[in-house]
Amino acid sequence: MGKVAVRVAVVCGVAVAVTAAVVVHCKMKKSGKWEKAMEIVKEFEEKCATPISKLRQVADAMLVEMHAGLASEGGSKLKMLISYVGNLPTGNEKGLFYALDLGGTNFRVLRLHLGGKGRGIVSKQFEEVSIPRSLMTGTSDALFDFIVAELAKFVAQEGMDFELRPGRQRELGFTFSFPVLQSSISSGTLVRWTKGFSIEETVGRDVVAELTKAMEKQGLNMRVSAFVNDPVGTLAGGRFTNNDVVAAVILGTGSNAAYVERAHAIPKWHGLPLKSGEMVINTEWGNFKSSHLPLTEYDHELDAETLHPGEQIYEKVTSGMYLGEIVRKVLRRMAEEAAFFGDTVPPKLKVPFILGTPIISAMHQDTSPDLKVVANRLKDILEISNTSLKMRKVIVELCNIVATRGARLSAAGILSILKKMGRDTMREGEKQRTVIAMDGGLYEHYTEYRNCLENTLNELVGKEVSETVVLELANDGSGIGAAILAACHSKYLETDE
Questions:
Q1: 83-242+475-490 placed in CATH 1.40.20.10
Q2: Which end of the chain is least crowded, N or C, by CB within 10 Å?
Q3: How far apart are CA 352 and CA 303, in angstroms?
Q4: What's the mean per-residue pLDDT of the chain?
Q5: Which residues cross the membrane (predicted)?
Q6: Nearest to 97, CA basis, from 490, 420, 493
Q7: Residues sharing a CB contact under 8 Å with residue 105, sequence separation 6 or more, in sequence order
Q8: CA–CA gap between residue 99 and residue 97 (Å, rounded)
Q9: Share of the chain above pLDDT 90, in %
């Protein structure tokens, strides 16, 4: 056995014991398949390249679309939706408020007790619920009935401390993380579904009316006081505790951003003059598309297979729903054209979305000497056990290529918002602080992605400006912000004063 091991080591150039992985690796070397696999990786890396010059082009192209979207409805791929949030929280809000945060494959229900001036959030309780996939493409009634049933269960668990005063309704902030055309702070029609949802009958309907109908049907005594998108909610939640928060970015299942715009810079706003002179704008930047985006054949293939081809292109290269799927597509091609995993393509590798982004995050961040986490994930998820250390290193590199491109493109998006607000340069004699509230599992849990994004942003704005720009994690920001905005727009405000 010792002699064989030495012979194999000489052939492969690595001192390892005889295993199925080594046999596969050696066969690949002899047949030229390894070179073919490396060609595929190299070509992919080159097409995903994001030099600073390209990122500046992306930011400038997005800025042009932002201006166009503010000028007129339908004037841009970026909807630049008016949120009807003109007055942001002050920190003095008080009372018991609820939030429903629907943003992806899960939703959260939340209860917040606000203590008023100087007391902030006194208590917070929440529950997270997974949405069955069948409801994501079923009927509008089925989806909202399910959501309200879970909301009612949450309320039913309350004790005496949460009883309402006679004649009062519970008030809810509803975070709905899909493109909506709002007509007031508590109403808005669905423009289109994203993130795997596709219920055609809901499109064009008032989403708050759909939720209210389900609440009335189930006898839940609650009203929607504020209807917001997740970055708008996150911005409001951040502003509640920090007056320097002027924007919010979501990097989770999907990707989006909101920021505070000057009212006079919104030509399409025809409403009453705003006391604050400001309006929060929901950019819907996930739908940004530009020839400057570094797209590959795998991205085009992924886009064609989604429920909304040609839409949400920026989101499809930056957000958590898609990063793992891009890695899977590259690995499948390597398996098919370069026998990367042996003579047959592993069946599990053919299953769309089997490699979730949490899996590639775990593999990318594997610091063990033998990349044990990578080996275990491949075995548990894809049922692939015959991998050498060299092969596992290639897989980590693929995760790195995809995450790096996504993080750097996200940084370019943030630069475009800083440019729009005039905060990408230093004004003489002014040291303004710009805080951007960040929320979403991708940003929170994928450390390599987060670090890359922050380093890239610093590189884009330069040392002096980077010292004034802070990215601040706002955990549960969109739900907390929605509940706080419900407090800001409570129908009982005057009676409580």
A1: no
A2: C
A3: 13
A4: 88
A5: none
A6: 490
A7: 130, 131, 133, 136, 195, 196, 253
A8: 7
A9: 66
Residues across the chain: 497
Distant-in-sequence, close-in-space partners of 110: CB < 8 Å, separation ≥ 6: 98, 99, 100, 101, 124, 125, 126, 476, 479, 480, 483
Encoding tokens for residue 53? 């010059």
Q: How many Å separate Cα 113 from the centre of its chain?
A: 27
Higher pLDDT, 254 or 42: 42
What token pair was written down for 140?
């509008």
Long-range own/partner contacts, residues 20-27 (CB < 8 A, 24 or more apart): 20/385, 20/386, 21/386, 21/387, 21/388, 21/391, 22/388, 23/386, 24/341, 24/342, 24/386, 24/387, 24/388, 24/391, 25/388, 25/390, 25/391, 27/339
Max alpha carbon distance in the chain (Å)? 89
Question: Are 150 and 144 in contact, with CB atoms under 8 Å apart?
Answer: no
Phi, psi of 148 (to 5 degrees): -70, -35
pTM: 0.85
Predicted local confidence at residue 5, as pLDDT: 36
Rounded Cα gap, residues 296 and 275, in angstroms: 47
Long-range contacts for 365-374 (Cβ within 8 Å, ≥24 apart)? 365/446, 365/447, 365/448, 366/396, 371/396
